[in-house]
Every structure is written in C-alpha cells, then in structure tokens.
Write a structure and sequence with these properties.
Blueprint lengths: L7 H28 L9 H26 L4 H24 L5 H24 L9 H30 L3 H22 L17 H6 L1 H13 L2 H31 L6 H32 L2 H20 L4 H29 L2 H29 L7 H21 L24
Helix pairs in contact: 1-3, 1-5, 1-6, 2-4, 2-8, 2-13, 3-4, 3-6, 4-13, 5-10, 5-12, 8-13, 9-10, 9-12, 9-13, 9-14, 10-12, 11-12, 11-14
C-alpha cells in the first residue's frame, strides 16, 4: 500500500499537493466570481476565452525556466520557495480586489501566481518517483494527482459557497484570497519536512545563474528531443494534447451554457452554482477514473487504455452533449472526467517510466506546455466559433471527431509499439527511479 509506514516521503509530498491544490481551487473560483460571474460583466465567448488565455498562456512561458531549474536544484527547496512566492502574489491580488481594482497589477499578480502554481505541479510530478517503489508508481500516479484534483474541486466549492453566502463583493473575494495565501504557506512548511535530497534530482548540476538562464531554450529542446526519441512517452503526450484541446472547448461551452442559456444571464449566482456543480460532477468522474485505471492496467496495457478513453470520450460528447440540455450535459461531464483522468494517469505513468530522471523535470514542463497550450488554443478556437449561449453543433462535432480520430490513430500505432517492459523487483521501503527503456 502506498500509505504504508515506510512511505513517509510520499505522504508528505501528497500533503504538500493537497494543501496547495485546495488553495488553487479557492483561488480560481474567487477570480472567476470576481471577473466572469459578476453581474456587471457580460460573459461573451471572447471574454471567457481571454480569461482562460490570460491565466494559462504564461505557464508556457515560465514552464521552460522551471524545467531547467527542476533538473539543477533540489526539488524540495523549489517547492518550499515557490509556495512562499505564490502566497505573496496572492496577497497582492487580494489587495487589488479589496481596492476594487482589476487593472494591470491585478492581472499581473494573478498571472504570476498561476505561473508559480504550474511550476510547483511540475516539481511534484518530477519528484513523485523518488517517494515510491517502481511497482507502486501506477497507483501513486492514480492517487496523488487525483486527490489533488478533488482537493481543487473542494476548494472551489468552498469558495463558491462563501461567495453565495456573503455576496460577490471585493470584501469576500479578498478574504478568500488571504485564506488561500495561508494554505500556500502551510504547503511550504510541509515541504520543509521532506529530506533536502528526497525528491531528486540524483545528481543536480551546479551551474552559474547566467549559464542556467542561457540554457533554458536548449534545455526544453533537449527535453522535447528526449520524448520524441522515446515513442512510448511521446505518443501519449501527442494524444493528451488533442484531448486537452477538446476538454478546453467543452469547458468553455459548459460555462457559456450555464451562464447564458440554462439561467438568466442576470442571475449570476445561478449560473455560477450550475457551472460549479458541473465541475464537481466531472471531479467525481476524475476520481473514479483514477481508481479504475490501475485495475484496468492489470488487464490491458496502458497503451491500449488510452485509445479506449479517447474513443469513449468522443462518443460521450456526441450522445450527451448534442441535446444541449442540463441533465444530459451533467452525464457527459461525469463521463468526460472519468475518461480524461484515465488517460491522464496512463500518460503520466508512461512518461515517468520511459524518460531518464536527469531529463524528467524538463520533460514534465514540456508536458505542461502542451497541456496548457492546448487549452489556450481551444480558448481561441471557442472565441472564434461559439455563439453567446455556447450552443454549436458544428463545434461539438469537431470536438467529438478529434477525440475519435486520435483514438483511432493511437490504436493503429499499438502493434508497432509494445508496452513498457516490466520493472525489476525493488526491495520494500527503498524508493528509487523506475528503469528506463
């Protein structure tokens, strides 16, 4: 069991993740309430897309720097300092909200805080293999990110509840943000309890600042080449980039439907509550998908589970999304969450198993660039194609078709690419890096 007494480092790393991602959910919901679901702002596809793009695009800019440093500096120290930095940034956002400001400083602090968040999540993924044995990695990948996603969902729900009770004013937003900053400080303090070298890298490079900054582009390029040279890791990344694009488009469709179609656009509380409930339903699907994936992996290879998830997601969107009715949309949200998380757990595991630990930080930041960049592309696509109420059979058809075609493509490649070789037995209580193919 991954919660056994001999895996203290895993439990501590999980606590860092849960405290931080609970705060992430509260932070995201507070910003959504303040910017998108305020009565004075109309939620057009363009504005919604801008909000997502502004929050996600900097991740792809900061990400390369994070990856290079994650492979050079001790990841434990990076988790500590990055959490403290984002706590200070969130306090800056809270100050802007208290002053009823949504100007340049407000968005700058919010963007920087979200950028630090992606930096931290990349470090958590890169450090995870150092806290469990190789045989436990699939289960750890199912449990850790999934519980983090659930923590984010709960944090968002608590934030929404607070705003529903006390209102949407700047006072409630700033209060939630101050509490979020405290959670980030707690996450930083828990990270300090992990041994300094407990999360790798095994042999961090000691290079001057100037050389490290100059090597950023080369570092990301080498991480990309490392993945491309290993199809067992590169192919899942290509598939999840398409899946993330589809998921992003569906997310914006869902938001617009609840904001402008299923509810009176002037009743922002109802729109926010409906969208939050849909996110929660999808979160339940995420949890069940993560629980199911390790069991499925015992019967099927992870390479076969990925195209099944893609195909099922495409069918679910056609069947339950096309009516554009709230009950069927919620069923589709649950199924999409289930299969998306099944694909995500499989992809995480395949990447971790098939890349060298010395490249893992760079590879996972490259992974994050694809993951978030695909969502930004989806936001731009939605802004150009969706109507105000989010109802578009053409866009829904494109999303479903992309899921199905990617699943078909991946299936064709399976016979040419066998699954990962079995990991060698590792003595209990001795976490190490999985074998590289």
């Amino acid at each position: 069991m991954i919660f056994a007494s001999g895996l203290r480092r895993f439990r501590l790393l999980l606590t860092v993740r849960l405290a931080g991602q609970f705060g992430d959910g509260a932070f995201q919901a507070a910003l959504a309430t303040y910017v998108v679901f305020s009565p004075q702002n109309a939620a057009t596809p363009g504005k919604v897309a801008e909000a997502f793009a502004v929050l996600l695009l900097p991740f792809t800019i900061v990400g390369p720097f994070a990856g290079v440093f994650l492979d050079r500096w001790r990841r434990r120290q990076m988790l500590f300092w990055a959490n403290l930095v984002r706590a200070g940034l969130v306090l800056g956002v809270a100050a802007c909200a208290a002053a009823n400001s949504t100007g340049f400083l407000f968005y700058l602090a919010a963007l920087a805080a979200f950028s630090a968040n992606r930096f931290i999540l990349a470090g958590l993924s890169a450090g995870l293999p150092h806290t469990v044995t190789g045989e436990q990695l699939v289960v750890a990948n199912a449990v850790s990110p999934t519980l983090g996603t659930l923590a984010t969902t709960i944090g968002a729900g608590v934030s929404v509840l607070v705003h529903a009770v006390v209102g949407h004013g700047q006072g409630s937003v700033s209060g939630v943000l101050v509490c979020t900053a405290c959670l980030y400080v707690l996450s930083a303090l828990v990270a300090l309890t992990i041994p300094a070298d407990g999360l790798g890298p095994a042999t961090p490079a000691r290079t001057p600042w100037r050389s490290a900054m100059a090597s950023v582009a080369r570092g990301v390029a080498s991480g990309a080449r490392h993945v491309i040279a290993r199809p067992a890791a590169g192919r899942p990344l290509a598939a999840i980039a398409v899946s993330r694009f589809c998921y992003g488009a569906v997310t914006i469709i869902t938001l617009l439907l609840f904001r402008n179609a299923f509810n009176d656009p002037k009743n922002t509380n109802a729109g926010l509550a409906g969208f939050a409930f849909a996110v929660g339903v999808s979160g339940v699907g995420f949890g069940l998908g993560a629980v199911a994936t390790p069991f499925v992996a015992r019967k099927l290879s992870l390479h076969r589970w990925i195209p099944l998830c893609l195909t099922a997601a495409g069918i679910a969107e056609l069947v339950f999304g096309a009516p554009f009715r709230e009950p069927t949309l919620l069923i589709g949200a649950f199924l999409l969450g289930f299969f998306s998380q099944g694909q995500k757990v499989s992809t995480d595991t395949l990447v971790q198993r098939n890349v060298d630990d010395d490249f893992r930080g760079r590879v996972f930041v490259f992974y994050d660039m694809l993951y978030n960049g695909s969502f930004v592309v989806a936001a731009a696509f939605a802004a150009a194609t969706l109507p105000m109420n989010g109802k578009s059979y053409a866009v829904l058809g494109i999303v479903s078709g992309a899921y199905l075609l990617t699943g078909f493509w991946y299936t064709l490649k399976i016979p040419q690419e066998p699954g990962p070789e079995p990991l060698p037995p590792i003595p209990a209580g001795e976490p190490t890096t999985p074998a590289v193919r």
